[in-house]
Amino acid sequence: MAKEFEVTPWEVSGEVNYSKLMKEFGTQPITDKILKKLQNAHPLLRRGIYFSHRDFDKWLAAYEKGDMVSVITGRGPSEKMHLGHLVPFLVAKSLQDMFDCDVFIPISDDEKFYIKENMSYEDALVYAEDNILDIIALGFKPGKTFIFQDFVYTKIYKYAAQIAKKITYSTAKAAFGLKPENNIGWSFYPAMQAAHILFPQFYKGRHISVVPVGIDQDPFIRLTRDIAGFKEFDFEKPAALHAKFVPSLQGGAKMSSSEQSAEQSVIWLSDSEKEVADKIKKHAFSGGKATVEEHRKKGGDPEIDVSFQYLKMFFEPDDKKLKKIHDDYKSGKLLTGELKQILIEKVNAFLKNHQKAREKAKSQLGKFVLLN
Ligand code: TRP
User: Fold this and answer.
1) From ligand 1's centre to the CA of 74, what distance in Å?
2) How far is the CA of 243 from the centre of ligand 1 (A)?
3) What is the pLDDT of residues 225-240, one digit of tens each?
4) What is the pTM of this model?
5) What b/e string do you get for 66-82 counting C-beta neighbours within 10 Å, with b at 16 or more?
6) Pocket test for ligand 1, best of 110, 220, 241 (most atoms within 8 A of CB)
7) From atom 12 of ligand 1, which residue's Cα is the shortest distance away?
8) How far is the C-alpha of 59 from the C-alpha of 34, rounded, in Å?
9) Is the dihedral of CA 239, 245, 109, 367 positive or negative?
10) What are the tens digits of pLDDT across the range 121-136?
């Protein structure tokens, strides 16, 4: 029988069953006890998009004891960035704001160069530089935020080599589903990402880091946790926070631009106000009824409505306001067009700010980017 869904770092297909995945991977659910400590966090952390973890309770305990803690999460610069790509970085920023900790952001231009058949070396560099501006624009703290690009910050290589020596080919093959036809860059890359995840400890000494990532990246976390314990390194095992996939505008499981109709199904960070409005009006999957009359009578379904879900995940941090939108939509008082209009205004306000901050970031690179 074919699997109902598949989740690997390089492919996500089918209808993902998250509780099954948690069991399969051996991760823990985010408990109310943890949530209590995240009351001021970004909605992505508070409202269940981050649903699973490894040792995040330990990370919080270390912080409470006054020990050093840090956050590390990266970006594979495969293209320009869309809203879904921001998820781990919004969370990293939120953790930095709450816990005043260092944040490390590796940019795996090498990964995308190896994996994407049509990605030239030059393009990988261009996207890396482009994406770094979007990341800085989110407002990370200078002096506490370290961005590094694999093809530029080549000091990372010596760490990757020490790690690569400890990973057998058969381990990598099993953990990442390597295929005979894959180029050998694919087999080396996991050592690189493990080096990213341990970099905070190579750089600042032994302490616990947390890695906010999509659950598809967990194989890297498992591998790195094993390596951390080897006597050669004697590092703390990194903690992790796992996110569900963000639905595309059209309601697909993942906001992925590899989908056929990418231009319509994602909100690019470079979109104009008009593009955002048009896309949301035309393509955002609606939980509303077919006619206004029926909608007024029976109400809509916020759980499947992508506009509502985006407000919940990203754009309406106020719980009371969100609940009112939810209840009004469910009762039929709020129409789909009106709900979409709320989202359009929120997205455009966010992007206006973002695009300005991105311009400013061009002169701030030196404050954030590690050079050799
Ligand atoms: N592989 C990740 C992706 O494709 C990006 C990434 C690189 C990363 N290094 C990392 C994520 C370290 C978390 C931690 O999205």
Assistant:
1) 4
2) 13
3) 999 999 999 999 999 9
4) 0.96
5) eebbbbbbbbbbbbebb
6) 220
7) 74
8) 11
9) negative
10) 999 999 999 999 999 9
